[in-house]
Amino acid sequence: MKKQKLKKNKVETKFEDRKTNDLQIKQQLTTVKTELKDGVFIFTGPMSVNDFSNNIKIKPNELLVNLFKKGKLYNLNSTLSEEEIAEICFEYEYDFQKEEELNETNFMDRLEVDDSKEELEKRPPIITIMGHVDHGKTTLIDKIRNSNIALGESGGITQHTGAYQVLHKKELITFLDTPGHEAFTSMRSRGAKVTDIVILVVAADDGVMPQTIEAIDHAKAAVVPIIVFVNKMDKQGADVEKIKGDLSKNDVLCEEWGGNVQFIYGSALKGEGIDKLFDVILLQAELLELKANKNRSAMGTVIESRIDIGKGTIATLIINNGTLLKRDFIVAGSNYGRIKNITSTTGTEMEKAYPGTPVIVTGLNYTPNSGDRFIGFDDEKFAKELANKKAFVDKKNELNLRQTQTLTLGLDLKVINIIIKSDVQGTAEALKYSLAPLKNDEVMVNIIRASVGNVTKSDVLLAQTSNSIIYAFNLKIDGNVKKFAETERVIIKTEVIIYKIIEDVENILKSRQEPKYEELITGEALIQKLFYFSKVGTIAGCLVISGTIKANTKLRVFRDDKLIHEGKIETLQNGKNNIKKAEKGTEFGTHIRKFNDIHEGDKLQTYDEVLVV
Predict the structure, then answer these.
(1) What is the pTM assigned to this prediction?
(2) Average pLDDT, whole number, for the chain?
């Protein structure tokens, strides 16, 4: 007991010694007054129509009419983008000036720390592995970790994001593995932003593919150096020169061709080229001079989060700067919480985590989003205030966005409401971002909720109220919940592969569309003679001049090239015999259903309506 107390005191002393983030945030927080001053509209970013009209002294209705004329069905709560604000200012002959400010909504990304050179120490490089589906990313990380997670991933595709650390020549390297499916585009983008170096995996027998180019774009946007690992060199059909040429078209030029990108050739399956890859990573890291201050409160990035029934929220974090300790109070996104336990990604318990280290933590009372920045605070009250303000702004923006989408997209569209439940936050987000844009000319998708954890009766009630379909990813549905859903007539669909959910929603979109028919002209005939029968009406004696005239077909009657009637052939005869069709050059007699006002010289045009698949 005494020993534990001493240990705890030691940790608390270390906590007190660290440099705090609080003071620097308070010093850097700035506010800019949104106003029209001397003919110049000063603003900081997007704002609602109502706020903009009040600040620029334009009547709200006048502004809404102006927007309506441009095809924008906005209301007072709709959000105007920076471009729209500038455009309206220009129309009303005002200058405009966008000012930057550090506030509760952006301090996570814009905070600058004042660590001196003397405080900085070398830290492990953070490496993100990217590339196209099935090019060997997971196999490569398997070899790096001496494990085999591919067998544990549904469909052979990595569904979750993980971070792992390895030791090579007494140097630590942190690896971040991102899923390859297109559903994880936003997660890969965040992966590039948190990383120091991107390893681009390209299969030698397959070459540059769409997600290869996407990964390059993410690396460029984050201004991150690339190392290319040409995988599957043992495969038949490997074409290294073609890969070099295709990558050069995307500004990835290998050293052999005079560029500055290192290419490593090998086979992840056979473990070939791995050691050389490590050497090149360490060399690149040395050139980047990656350093951080251990003696400050932690700052970093959320890699993944999920809910465990026994442990509550479990989150994977990477420390970018500072040291993370048990009992640390952190803010991530618009939420906050206190760290209860810290373990390595291999399950070893830790008292603290240094820069460049991936860790798994428990104790948070929420599931932060993948890619959220987190910052450690000493002043819990101040941290909660910032988080609550950001949560309020985020909620307001989300409601405005939904309202705007409904007004602009949903006016004449049917809506498929969807509730997403997943085992981890990253997958819930990936599904949300993949399903939300899906729509066609008649039907759109609306995501009611995307969250972590098992499907509950509350979810079923929400689905029943909103007429939603529940998609449960990698979850087992409780028997009582399943029975409750059946009673409430709520559909719950379970799946363990991302793209199957996307395909299912795409199929539902197609099925909700009204069937479309294409008109196909089948034949034309000229009325040559008229016959009248009291029991039938006027019979037209006709000559087929093109195509085929079929019995019971829809038709149009033209007189002097003007349409005078649309109807249907009631009878089709050759002499006294009923016939099914009359070919070009043959004569026939016909009566048009409920129409007798025909003249010699009128032209008949028959057509079918064919279902467009």
Answers:
(1) 0.64
(2) 83
